[in-house]
Design brief:
By secondary structure, the protein is an alpha/beta fold. The chain has 2 domains: 2-157, Rossmann fold (3-Layer(aba) Sandwich); 188-305, Riboflavin kinase-like (Elongation Factor Tu (Ef-tu), domain 3, Beta Barrel), CATH 2.40.30. Helices cover 28% and strands 29% of the residues. It has 10 helices and 14 strands. Helix 5 (104-115) packs across helix 6 and helix 7 packs antiparallel against helix 8 (178-185).
Amino acid sequence: MHVFNSFEEVPSQQGMNVTLTLGFFDGVHLGHRRILDRVGMFYDPGVQVSGLVTFDPHPSELLAPDKVPQLLTTKEEKIEILKDFKLSYILFAPFNAELAQMPAERFVDEMLVRRLGAKQIIAGYDTRFGSGKRGDVELLKKMGAEKGFTVERIDVVRTDNKSVSSTAIRELLLKGEVTAAEGMLGRPYAMKGEVVKGIGIGKKLGFPTANLKVDPKKLVPADGVYAAMCETGGETVKAAVSIGSRPTIPLKNPDRVIEAHLIGFNGDLYGKELKVEFTRRLRPQRKYGDAKALAEQLAKDIELAEKY
């Protein structure tokens, strides 16, 4: 699978049968997976090309800066997940002013058909593109009849009678409902980042923690204590993860931090990359009477986290 960062980087596909899909694909959830599985059916190196056209950064950064959603997957995470699908390439089209102002019809004709050689487009039911988001599946079908490509629509995917969408998953995570979010994603929600030095509170309480620094654009679940799996250096261990501002500890200007206690792990993690996969929310953040009461609760949290 090749990764391209501009339309110009994509080599000519002349003489090939090119199948494309397009969208932001944040989270690469079950709905996205259905689309990608269908696109992958047309993957045949040397004969058929299957491509994903997505955008970077999120279009809202340009179109509605005050309403930019936090990301379920960073660009790096998205690439890693998409390696599991039969894609010839991913194109991260730079979402700039020119692309934002481009009419949907021109985008299809110039970018998808002429430049990328689309012969077939697999589109989700809610696909939108072009200036003012005027492009949709119906426009694709109309233009397909004129330009010589076919269009297939993929309908909504539901779990527990709820429509799967990136927005729905964000809402679940912001309530701490990581198990329900996993049901829509098809895998545990994960974060990855560098382990940085904290203020050493966990170690003083007898439970050393790895403080995780994540991409500021990445969505962090609601404050609380979670059971998780942590991966670093090829090793995977169970963990109790705390997210919040440490209400029991008297701090003048407390930051919101992500602290992971890796159960049974004794290595040095400072400066290393750590991946956290959330499996269950154990409890909300609470303020305890003193450090001793907090330490007692942490011991209970770790015992419970070890069961998941």
